[in-house]
Design brief:
352 residues; alpha+beta; 3-stranded mixed beta sheet; 34% helix; DUF6729; DUF6729 domain-containing protein
Amino acid sequence: MRTRLQQPQWLINEFEQLVKDSKQRDSKGLPPLYQQGLFWFPTRAPFFILRKNSHVHPHDLYTPHFFLWDPICFNDISCPNCRRPLTRQQHIPAPRRVVGMNSAFWMIGYRYRCHRCPMASGRSITFRSRNSQIMKELPTQLVAEFPACLSHRSAISKDLFEFMRSCFQNGIGSKQFADMLWVQHLLAYSNLKLQYLLHVESCRESMDRWSGQKFSNFKPFEDTSPTGCHGYTPSSEWLRDMYDDFLETHQHEINQHMSMLSGDICAIDHSHKVTKHIARVNGEQVFTGLLTVTNSLSEIRICNFVATKSHSQFVDTLTRMRESLTLYGHNQPTIFYTDNMNDKQLLVMIVE
């Protein structure tokens, strides 16, 4: 079983201070940050940190960004199990890291308690404020402010996830995207290191050189020592799994959108590349091809795995496409492009 790395002290100190500040609530139960109309705690720019202090440690420049998520401040939340109102118990004792485009930010969350929940045999149970069941209880406009896509133990920002979707849809694989993400984080960290080294150089040219003052080394991005950056970007496998989970979650909406597309001019083709990466049973391929039908706008109208190229494998699919075209008021196909003229009789029979 993998053990979690201990979070660095520079992060814990900042986290505990922000949690302490957030305990000061007004009459409506809002922390000072929410009273200012903010979800994000403000951070200082490295330039001002270096300008104010001549002797700066590298970890002073990390300036982690924190996001406060306590939605019970805005409306009552019911227990997902018994529908009784939840109450705030305490803050979650550690911040949750979320990987962004070129840096990470951290979420401060809370636990909400349901006292003597009937669905838990009368025991008291708690939910984290970022729990998916809690998110379903919130208004859509409030959920839109939540900045992360979560897995069990990791997370990436919504902006990064949307960018990843665009990359995947335009031919960039998960391995290439993971490498790109690593480079962007390393580049941002290198720029921070450059600022620090320039500051050290300027101090050496001033009176500090005569005082014998020494400066700490700027540690590598992935260093996990107490004063290290603890830099991290997710693996290509994790990114791919997050994308797959998204598709599975929205499968119904995707299929619905596909069924509403036009199909007056279509192209039908079998591809045998994808099926080489599909799991085998006793060493044999379950599917030999991917049947794809696209319309005149190159939009995918049908996308089905087939065991053979036999017409019996896709008669039902084409029939359902014809029915959906009629249902949504589109014209039936007038032209079909294919590389197999043996399909002609079947296609004519389907569309007539």
